[in-house]
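Q&A log
Question type: sequence-to-structure
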Amino acid sequence: KAFAEGGYIEVHKDLIFDDQASLLIPAGVEVELDMNDFQLINSVDKGPAIKNYGKLTILNGTFDNQAGDNGVSTQTVILNSGELIIEGGTFGSDNTFGNAIENRADGNVTINGGTFTASSRKVNPDGKPFAYVFHHRSAGTMTINNATVNTEANGVFSTTYTNGYTTGELIVNGGTYQLNGAADCKSHYMVYCTRGIVSLNGGDFTWYK
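Response status: OK
Response body:
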């Protein structure tokens, strides 16, 4: 399911993908997505709800990636390798399998508000949860302005090295971030930084272990 052309896209009903597909914005395409507060959900265990390689601006809506009857998703709600701008909306839920927002390659993300979460249901082979709400694996920049997070995921912010790229900067400007320790998770991190730079410029950070 790909946008061959860009422009302003207005949605008038829930979009539920049950055929292992993602909404795809190709490189070179610019889309402004107005969900009118409807939902976009990938309900099976393949692929994110959205893959962005172009320029995507999300104005509102509810977005999630959930497991169907055929297994456990190892993906993310939105996978960005282009330019992603979020002006509001709800991303992830207690049913999310994977990260809420993942930034890769040379991608850049700017978040101007919104509610974000992931869950402790995504596990590695040892059975330990390892999803993060914001997972920055890009040489670009992820800037988070005044977001709201309440999660039982493994962590809120993560920056790591991947695919030959040196991770760029993750910048947080204000917002409310609450991490609730799940009983089955031994290692929770508000910030997990193995590469790049994390700058916290104000905000309310609460960690219940």
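Response note: The two ends are 41 Å apart (CA to CA).
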